[in-house]
Task: structure prediction
Amino acid sequence: MKKKIMVLGLDAGLLLLYFVIGFITDSMLTLPTGCVLATLGMECPSCGGTRCVRYLASGQFLKAFQINPYFFVSIFYLGFLLVLLNSAVLFGKGEKLLKKVATPTAAIIWAVGLIPFTILRNIF
Result:
Protein backbone atom coordinates (compact mmCIF):
# COMPACT_ATOMS: atom_id res chain seq x y z
CA MET A 1 0.00 0.00 0.00
CA LYS A 2 2.88 2.32 0.81
CA LYS A 3 4.38 1.86 -2.68
CA LYS A 4 1.05 2.68 -4.31
CA ILE A 5 0.76 5.93 -2.35
CA MET A 6 4.33 6.89 -3.28
CA VAL A 7 3.75 6.20 -6.98
CA LEU A 8 0.45 8.10 -6.98
CA GLY A 9 2.18 10.99 -5.20
CA LEU A 10 4.91 10.98 -7.86
CA ASP A 11 2.25 10.99 -10.58
CA ALA A 12 0.38 13.87 -8.96
CA GLY A 13 3.60 15.85 -8.52
CA LEU A 14 4.62 15.38 -12.14
CA LEU A 15 1.15 16.31 -13.34
CA LEU A 16 1.22 19.46 -11.24
CA LEU A 17 4.69 20.27 -12.57
CA TYR A 18 3.42 19.81 -16.13
CA PHE A 19 0.62 22.33 -15.58
CA VAL A 20 2.89 24.80 -13.77
CA ILE A 21 5.42 24.67 -16.60
CA GLY A 22 2.63 25.10 -19.14
CA PHE A 23 1.38 28.15 -17.24
CA ILE A 24 4.86 29.64 -16.86
CA THR A 25 5.56 29.05 -20.55
CA ASP A 26 2.93 31.58 -21.50
CA SER A 27 4.34 34.24 -19.17
CA MET A 28 8.08 33.80 -19.89
CA LEU A 29 9.37 35.59 -22.94
CA THR A 30 13.10 35.00 -22.61
CA LEU A 31 15.37 32.95 -20.44
CA PRO A 32 18.86 33.81 -19.28
CA THR A 33 21.81 32.23 -21.08
CA GLY A 34 23.24 29.14 -19.41
CA CYS A 35 26.45 29.38 -17.40
CA VAL A 36 28.48 27.02 -19.60
CA LEU A 37 27.38 28.75 -22.80
CA ALA A 38 28.07 32.19 -21.36
CA THR A 39 31.45 31.21 -19.90
CA LEU A 40 32.93 28.82 -22.48
CA GLY A 41 30.93 29.75 -25.56
CA MET A 42 29.89 26.13 -26.15
CA GLU A 43 26.70 24.26 -25.41
CA CYS A 44 26.61 21.71 -22.61
CA PRO A 45 24.47 18.54 -22.92
CA SER A 46 21.55 20.19 -21.14
CA CYS A 47 21.63 23.48 -23.07
CA GLY A 48 18.12 24.03 -24.32
CA GLY A 49 16.67 21.62 -21.77
CA THR A 50 14.40 24.23 -20.22
CA ARG A 51 13.16 25.37 -23.62
CA CYS A 52 12.67 21.73 -24.61
CA VAL A 53 10.45 21.15 -21.56
CA ARG A 54 8.58 24.39 -22.24
CA TYR A 55 7.85 23.31 -25.82
CA LEU A 56 6.81 19.85 -24.65
CA ALA A 57 4.46 21.37 -22.08
CA SER A 58 2.84 23.47 -24.78
CA GLY A 59 2.53 20.49 -27.16
CA GLN A 60 5.15 21.65 -29.67
CA PHE A 61 7.00 18.35 -29.99
CA LEU A 62 8.96 19.14 -33.15
CA LYS A 63 10.38 22.36 -31.70
CA ALA A 64 11.21 20.53 -28.47
CA PHE A 65 13.13 17.89 -30.44
CA GLN A 66 14.96 20.52 -32.49
CA ILE A 67 16.10 22.40 -29.37
CA ASN A 68 17.69 19.37 -27.67
CA PRO A 69 17.09 15.90 -29.15
CA TYR A 70 18.93 14.07 -26.36
CA PHE A 71 16.90 15.76 -23.65
CA PHE A 72 13.71 15.12 -25.64
CA VAL A 73 14.40 11.37 -25.95
CA SER A 74 15.45 11.21 -22.29
CA ILE A 75 12.15 12.71 -21.17
CA PHE A 76 10.18 10.18 -23.17
CA TYR A 77 12.35 7.32 -21.86
CA LEU A 78 11.72 8.47 -18.29
CA GLY A 79 8.02 8.77 -19.09
CA PHE A 80 8.05 5.19 -20.37
CA LEU A 81 9.73 4.08 -17.14
CA LEU A 82 7.08 5.94 -15.15
CA VAL A 83 4.30 4.14 -17.04
CA LEU A 84 6.01 0.79 -16.35
CA LEU A 85 6.45 1.70 -12.68
CA ASN A 86 2.78 2.63 -12.41
CA SER A 87 1.77 -0.60 -14.11
CA ALA A 88 3.99 -2.72 -11.87
CA VAL A 89 3.04 -1.08 -8.57
CA LEU A 90 -0.62 -0.29 -9.12
CA PHE A 91 -1.68 -3.26 -11.27
CA GLY A 92 1.02 -5.85 -10.67
CA LYS A 93 1.92 -6.10 -14.37
CA GLY A 94 5.03 -5.09 -16.25
CA GLU A 95 7.55 -5.63 -13.47
CA LYS A 96 9.72 -7.95 -15.60
CA LEU A 97 9.87 -5.41 -18.43
CA LEU A 98 10.67 -2.63 -15.96
CA LYS A 99 13.58 -4.67 -14.59
CA LYS A 100 14.87 -5.27 -18.13
CA VAL A 101 14.58 -1.63 -19.23
CA ALA A 102 15.66 0.21 -16.07
CA THR A 103 19.15 -1.23 -15.59
CA PRO A 104 22.52 0.20 -14.66
CA THR A 105 23.67 -0.69 -18.19
CA ALA A 106 20.94 1.53 -19.66
CA ALA A 107 22.06 4.39 -17.41
CA ILE A 108 25.69 3.92 -18.49
CA ILE A 109 24.72 3.86 -22.18
CA TRP A 110 22.72 7.06 -21.67
CA ALA A 111 25.61 8.77 -19.87
CA VAL A 112 28.23 7.67 -22.41
CA GLY A 113 25.93 8.83 -25.24
CA LEU A 114 26.13 12.36 -23.87
CA ILE A 115 29.77 12.66 -24.90
CA PRO A 116 29.36 12.31 -28.69
CA PHE A 117 26.11 14.27 -28.53
CA THR A 118 27.85 17.19 -26.83
CA ILE A 119 30.78 17.12 -29.27
CA LEU A 120 28.57 16.89 -32.35
CA ARG A 121 26.17 19.63 -31.26
CA ASN A 122 29.10 22.02 -30.83
CA ILE A 123 30.62 21.13 -34.23
CA PHE A 124 27.45 21.57 -36.28
User: Anything to note?
Assistant: The mean pLDDT is 81. The longest helix spans residues 2-27. Residues 9 and 15 are 10 Å apart (CA to CA). DSSP finds seven helices and no strands in the chain.
